[in-house]
Amino acid sequence: xxxxxxxxxxxxxxxxxxxxxxxxxxxxxxxxxxxxxxxxxxxxxxxxxxxxxxxxxxxxxxxxxxxxxxxxxxxxxxxxxxxxxxxxxxxxxxxxxxxxxxxxxxxxxxxxxxxxxxxxxxxxxxxxxxxxxxxxxxxxxxxxxxxxxxxxxxxxxxxxxxxxxxxxxxxxxxxxxxxxxxxxxxxxxxxxxxxxxxxxxxxxxxxxxxxxxxxxxxxxxxxxxxxxxxxxxxxxxxxxxxxxxxxxxxxxxxxxxxxxxxxxxxxxxxxxxxxxxxxxxxxxxxxxxxxxxxxxxxxxxxxxxxxxxxxxxxxxxxxxxxxxxxxxxxxxxxxxxxxxxxxxx
Length: 345
Description:
Elements: H1 17-24, E1 29-31, H2 40-44, E2 50-54, H3 91-103, E3 108-112, H4 115-123, E4 132-134, H5 149-155, E5 163-168, H6 179-193, E6 198-203, E7 216-222, H7 227-235, E8 239-242, H8 251-258, E9 263-266, E10 281-284, H9 289-300, H10 304-322, H11 324-339
Parallel strand pairs: 1-2, 2-3, 3-4, 5-6, 5-8, 6-7, 8-9, 9-10
Helix pairs in contact: 6-9, 8-10
């Protein structure tokens, strides 16, 4: 009853998907996000090799999906801060123990979408004994690509001469998305650039109380429901900000980089696998708005030649590491390894 607002699932209730999987008799079962599909016990009953791609932490915690600054999943949870619990044998501990007991005999291989979450899978009590491969999320680099910035701004009715910052607009109930830190960064940075023409373009259903100044404008793009529309939004930007405090990967950042746009984000999240500090963007240390503002100033202060170099490096980095073709091939290799006889695996 004292649980804090947070994405949560313990996976106890039975789901119909397990019966359908059994009827298919697949050679490989590849799981992604299963909270509304399979219970922990149903997963235990699956036969055959299982590959599980972890897009969040929920598979190996006692319930939470984003354990920011909490490492209790390493020992099997208990006394969960998100439950406001002091009981070492609380629901989270019982859930972890049940997962460990039910799944330990599975022929399972984890796939993590980033190096950070891969390290957490390896350190976890629930899944630490299983092998882990790192395969990032793939993007369609033929869709997310650089295009004419003036044309993109004209289509979306944006100031051609402003310095454009694109960021997500998140609900206040999503604290790990860094909305508070973003507002703090813009407030700090505005004190330095109040006389400049700056446009803050937001994408998403949420709204953020942006700071105002004579030369500053806010352009709310709202929810964009196609990759092509997102590509246009990225291409209006001089910089994209991803202020998340926890990310397993960071699709927003990868798509922006594929469009040749520098990204400012916090170091220590999954975005660190995407952004090369000082080369394709800026990774701020710590979790303060002031440090994030340093990244905005870095992007603003780039010369024309430096900006062109960053854009080219960002596009090259995304094409080389996140293009869908390479990601598909990486999965094929995991599949091949999983269907080898046990004595060859």
